[in-house]
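Prompt: I keep going back and forth on a fold encoding question. Comparing notes only helps if you start from a blank page. Show me how you would write down a chain together with its backbone fold. Please set it down just below, with no commentary around it:
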Amino acid sequence: MLKLRLSGSWKADGPRRFTIDWGDRSTEHGAVADTSGPVTVSHVYAAVGRDTVRVTVTGKDGEEGSDTLTAFVEAAGTPQVFVGAGDIATCSSGNAAASSKLLDSIPGTVFTLGDNAYPSGRARDYSRCYAPTWGRHKRRTHPVPGNHEYDVPGATGYFDYFGVAAGDSGKGYYTYELGDWHIVALNSNLAVTTESEQEHRQEPGNRPIVARQAELASEQEQWLRADLAAHPKRCTLAYFHHPRFSSGTSHGSDPQMQPLWQVLYDAGADVVLTGHEHNYERFAPQTPDGRADSARGIREFVAGTGGGPLYQFGPPIANSEVRSMSYGVLKLTLGVRSYQWQFIPIAGGTFTDSGSAPCH
C-alpha cells in the first residue's frame, strides 16, 4: 500500500491527475480534487525483488512534477528490521551524528520516538540538526512527535518536514503493516494534561491545546480501539513519546498514558516503544497498572538515546529489567510469531542488551 501527498506550486486550482509506474511494467492512473490529504493506492507484485516506483502528477494547466521511491518486495514471513530511538538531534553535540551512522549500516524501517529536532522542533531545527544526520534516512522513517515538537504552534515544523509520513496534520497518529506485524504510531502529546507539559503544546494562534484536550485524547483512543479491532494480528507493536513506566528522575512514569496502554492491553498488544527519558530501559511484560504479567503483558522499551543530553536514573521501579545511560539505537527484528531486540551503542560505547520473546 502506498500513501502519497500531492503538493507543489500550481498555476490554477482544480483536479490533479497522477500516474504511478510501479516498476514492474504496470501503471495506474487517477485524479484527485482535494490535495490537502493523502491519496492511498495499492499494488500487488508478482515476484520478490526491488522495484523503482515513479509518481507523476499533472496540474489543471499541464504543469507536471514527479518523484520516485524504491519498493522492496519480500517473501511472506520474511523477518522485518525496525530500528530507531527518540530524543535525537541537537546541533550542540555530535551524538545524533554518531547514532545516525549506526543506521547507515542497518537496513529496514526507521522509527523516531519524538523530540526529533532540538531545541523546539522548528523548521530550522529540522534542516540544521536533523536533516544532516537522521534525515539521511527520511524516506524510510515513520516518526512520532514529542513534546518539543509542540514548541511550534500545531507542531508545524514536524508535520511540514515529514509530510504524509507523519499522519494527518493535527493528529499525528497512524498505522501500517510491517511483515506479519501491525504497527501503531501514536501521538502521546494529545493525552498529556500536566501543566509542565502544556507549555509545549500550542495550537495555531498560540491557543493552548488544553482547550480541546479531553476531546483530542478521546478521539485518539476511539480510533485506536477501532483500528486494533480491525487488525486482529497475533503480533502488535505501538510507539509514542511519553513512557507509561520509567525509573528516570527527569520525567519518570506517566500515568496519563494508562488509557492508551489499556486499549493496547485489551487488544493483546506485545510491545510499546517510548522516549522522553534520555536513557535506555527495558521492562518485563506488565499490565497498564504495573503488575507483572508474563502471559498477556506488554513489554515496554524506553529508548530516548538518539543524541540529546542523557538523564539519570533513580531506584529501579517494579518490573524494570535493564537500565543504561548510553547513546545508541534499538533494533527490533520482527518475525512471524516472535521478536528479537538489540540495543546497539554508538562508536566507543560498551553497553549492549539483547533478547527475544514470542508474541501473545
Summary: The radius of gyration is 20 Å. The chain has two domains: 2-73, 80-358. The chain has six helices and 21 strands.
